[in-house]
Structure formats: structure tokens, C-alpha cells
Amino acid sequence: MKRPTAPRVPNGRVCRRTACAIGSAALLAPLLLTPLTDDDAPEQRLQVAFTDAAHDFHVPRSVLMSVSYVQTRWDAHPGSPSVAGGYGPMHLVDTSQFPAASPTPGVQGGGTLQPSAGAAGAPAARPDGVLAGRSVKPADLQRAARLTDAPAGRLRTDATANVRGGAALLAATQQQLGKPLSDNPADWWEAVERFPGTPDVSSAATYANDVFSVIRKGAHRTTAEGQEVSLPASPSVRPHTVRTEKPQHAKGTECPAEVACDWLAAPYEEIDDDGDYGNHDLADRPRDQKIEYIVIHDTEAKLSSMFQTVQDPTEASWHYSIRSSDGHVTQHVQTKDEAWHSGNQYVNARSIGIEHEGFLRQPGTWFTEQMYRTSARLVRYLAKKYDVPLDRQHIFGHDNVPSPTGDSIPDMHDDPGPFWDWRHYFDLLGAPLKATAGPNSDMVTVLPDYATHSPKFTGCLKPGAPCPKHGSSAVRMYTRPDEKAPLIQDPGRHPDGGDSTLDVDDLGARASAGQTFAVAERRGDWTAVWYQGRKAWFKNPKKQATAVGAAGKMVTPKEGLNEIPVFGRALPEEDAYPEGMEGEPEAPLPYHFRAGQRYVTEGTIDSSFVPRSAFVDSPEPVVRGDETYYQIQFDHRIAYVRANDVDVIGSAVAAGPSSAPQGGSTGN
């Protein structure tokens, strides 16, 4: 049959590379794959693919590109699916190969887990906001393959074919809705809302709002595959249809208005006749203890397993879990109470713990854009509620929590690891990590370009084996300005004197994006900072900087003190404990903070101790001391020093541009 003549699109072009025919509302006529021309630069292939697919399927390019950005930030990971079975830059899901997502507590069909009774009440029944009477399948790779007359395998491995499949699905959905293939992005809100297959109306609306936010703001990014992709901002675009339904929240949950939230209670109960109990402590925060921190974890297990763990009174607990496939949130512990999540009771007492489903060795599979976005919404909500600063001294990973004592350092956790994208995460938080001083300042903030910065790691697939190349937030610390020099040796993590390694779990010689250090020396492409009691060198070339200038305050030992102790807790002085209560012994960490060295501080923190070691009906009182400490960035982890031991000095801000390293992303 002869194909119909393709209609003109807004820029006046007609289809030249393909026939561009659009079929019925249920099915698009097959289209041929567009071959790359000799004029297309290799790093522009994805940009060209978006332009051509948008043109050929009569989808506004800004809609197609923004959907892809919210799905994957344009990363392709050719042939490697996410945990939900999503492939390519459009995250097309091959439902023939992958089972449904992890269970959702309290939602029909979500598995067999039975939530415990808890203070927040029973979990929510199936929400009224589920999209009744319509398909809620995600963007279907098999259907996209049929619509574009391409083998499904090609859509899994070829970014151009994948983009075309996504465009075909959007166009088909628009026609199914009885709407024209308009060149106006504002007409596509409902088609966008349906693209990810989110069953909850409010969550689908949040997704669509995110897509239109990207359209308005624009975005630019170098992808994991080295593709340069840009979307110009269209600030005047406003969708013609916007849903205003509020998401369903289980009774007592504490979540932002735009995030659906379930409840699955962590138990608070006695375990035996000896007084042992679990798996969290009653508190009255922030009345009895200010919440200072929000700690980011990854589960290192599937969420179904973690739901079993959090219901076990003999196990650890945390406040929230976030599912990888779609960012669904489940709360387990009230934020007023203290969860057992960080490995440091001092930090537990002052923090909220959020677990993210995933494995740090498989970031491309588990650290999905939907999980990042939901997590950022939750953290932003909690930070506002409890007045937690949106910076890396207060929003940090489990791998940044200090060990309470020296002998527990080897057992401290290392999640979410070097592949968690802190720079993007803080963009989503609305608090971008950026330079606050010129390039020659005496403080620097670590800030590599995640997509193009890919240091070598081992141990992702098997011990000692190289990890697949991947973007990273981490920079590596050397004893000399030479990549052949030994790495900084961590006497706490390797008390036997063993060397630091390239292993993905070895934090002994690493710093991470957003962490700020005092400069000790500069030499060519290298910068030395004070780190763990010595000079540590990292590569920081001007053409591809891994750090930017910073302004702020530092501490240094008072005159006359050759060395001062460093702590993993800010404990009260002995006299602060009430009569009859045994004081918690101080335990300096096995590091040196010597005269002349400097470490960056965000300010003082009060000393306190919470004697939560018994099953009680009401919270134990907090012991407060007169001793004041400074929190410092000591190495990969934060630490504390006594205020009486240090002097505070301001940075001498050097003049110069205060821009971030080139190649990063904009848009969120």
C-alpha cells in the first residue's frame, strides 16, 4: 500500500529520511531506522536521534527529550537493563523478560508481607487514585519494536532505535487519547503522564510535572556514553491539562504532599527476659534532640528482603525505604524516634536514615532517576521540616558517618559508594554544589564531572577484577602528586598497616563530591589537602578540574598544642552525667591532627549522650554537656574536635571565577 504524504511540522521540514507515516490510534505504521550520516559527529549521535525521531513521529522534540531526561538523564547503558527491565535512553521496559517491581506494603498484589501494627496505624488500602480502567504498563519495549518495525534486540542495544521506539509510543498514546499530533508541547501532558506506566494518578502527575519542568528550564549533559546533548529552555510552556489529585498517604506517614507514601512498621518490642529489645528507640525529637543530619544508604539487598529485615526486632531499622523501579516510599519509623541505622549511636540520635533499594556495585541497574527524584523530594521536605542545612556536611552517605571508636572503623559501612551521583542529587535538592571562591583559594570543594570522571575501581564483579567503566563522585588520594605513588594509608580501616586499594569498598584514600578540605599545597595539575592527619594529593587539572574553590572556616590546633585528639562522637564531659549513671568513655580515633594542619568546619555542635539501652514506655532524658565541639571534614568521613583545642580561621578567598567544572548537567 502506498504510504500517505507526511504532514509538515512546525519548522517547515518534510520527512526526507523516512516515510514518517502515522497509522491508527492503536498502531503506528512501521518506520525504517534512520542511518547516521557522515556529517553527524560521533558525540552528537544521540542529539541527532532525538531530532530525527521527533520529526519523523510528529512529537515535539522538547517533549521527547524531556521524557528521556526524566527517565534516564539520556544515559543509554546499551544492553544493560535497570532493575525494572528498562533499556536505553527512553527506559523502554521489556516486560517479557522482567517480573513486576518489588512489593508495595498495603497495596493489593504487592506480595505477601504482613505489616506489623505500629504507632502510625495500619497501612493504606489500595489507593482510590489508582488509574482505574486503563493500562498501567510501563513504556513497553516490545510494543515499541512493533510500532517501529525493528527487532526488539535492537531497541535494547541501539540508542537511536530506542529513541525512535519512545517517540512512537508517545505518538500512539496521543492518538489513543483522541488528540492531534500537535507541535505544541503543552498539548502532550496526558500522553507524558502515561508514558512510565505509573498506576497512581498523583504519581503520574508528578512525573509529568517533572517532564514539563525540564522543558521550561532546559538541560545540557554529557552522558555516560560521552554523548553531548542539549535541550534549550522553553520557559513559557505550560501544559493545558494538569491533574491536582494529592497522593495517598498511609495514616501517620511523614512525606511531602506530592509523594505517595506507605507504612510498614519497624517493631519496638522486648526480645527476651534479659531486657534485650529492638529495633529502634523511643525519642521526642526535635524537642529532646535536634535532628542535624539525613543519612543516605543503599540496601545492598532487594527491597522485599529489606522489608523482612525491618520487621525483625533483632535487626537494624531505618526511617524510610525507597524502591528503585519507581521511587515508591515506605516509612518504617516515626522521625521523632531514633532508628538504628548508621553504626554510630551519636549520629542515630541526631539523624534520619533513608535506605535506597540497590547495590553500589551495580549503579546503572539500581540507582534510577525516579529513585533519585523521589529521594530528593523526601529529603527536601525533611530538611525544611527540621531545619537541616542542604549541604554535604549534613546530608551525607552511610560511608561518611564517623566510627564511634577506633576499633569499629573496619566494620563501618561504605554505601551508597563512589557511584552515587551527589552532584545531581544536590541539583535535585535545589542546592547545587558549586564554587564559592576563586580557583586559588585556600579551601576546595571536591566536584568532578560525574559523567566524564571515571577512576578505576575493582571488585564490582569479583574480587580484584576491574569494575566496568562508570561515572563517579569520588577522587582518589595519593601520598605524592603522582598516580604511581602509593595511596594514603588509613590506619583505622587497615590497622595492620595494609595498603589502601582500588577496591570499590575501600574508603581509605577517597574523597567525594561536595566535601570541602583545606588546601595544603598545589603543584601543577595536583592539589594537596589536609586529610586524615597528612597531606593527601589528588589530580585536579585545570582543563578537567575535579575540585573548585571554596570559602568558609577552618580549625587548627591552638598555639602550644602539638597534636589534638579527633573523635567520632561529641560526648559530654564526665561531670555532665547524673549521679548513678555511668558516663560514656571518650574514645579518640587513631588519627593525628597536628599543629599547622587545618580542617574545614561548618560550625559548632553541642555535646550530648542518650542513654537508650533499655525497653521503656517513654523516651530516656538526653544528657547534655557544657563541652562544645567543631564538626570537621577529616577524611571521607566527618569527625569532631573539642572547641577548646582549636582556633577558628577564615579562608583567604582568592579572586577569580567561581564556576563549576565544565561538562556538568543543568536542569533537574
TrEMBL record:
Record GO terms (molecular function): N-acetylmuramoyl-L-alanine amidase activity
Alphabetical list of Pfam families matching this protein: Amidase_2
Broad enzyme group: hydrolase
SMART domains given in the database record: Ami_2
Keywords, alphabetical: Cell wall biogenesis/degradation, Hydrolase
InterPro entries cross-referenced by the UniProt entry: Amidase/PGRP_sf, Amidase_domain, NAMLAA_amidase_2
Chain positions covered by the region annotation Disordered: 98-137, 223-253
Reactions accelerated catalytically: Hydrolyzes the link between N-acetylmuramoyl residues and L-amino acid residues in certain cell-wall glycopeptides
Residues covered by the N-acetylmuramoyl-L-alanine amidase domain: 280-417
CDD domains: PGRP
Biased composition (Basic and acidic residues): 242-252
Documented EC number(s): 3.5.1.28
PANTHER family: N-ACETYLMURAMOYL-L-ALANINE AMIDASE AMID
Protein's name according to its UniProt entry: N-acetylmuramoyl-L-alanine amidase
Protein source organism: Streptomyces griseofuscus
Origin organism lineage: Bacteria, Bacillati, Actinomycetota, Actinomycetes, Kitasatosporales
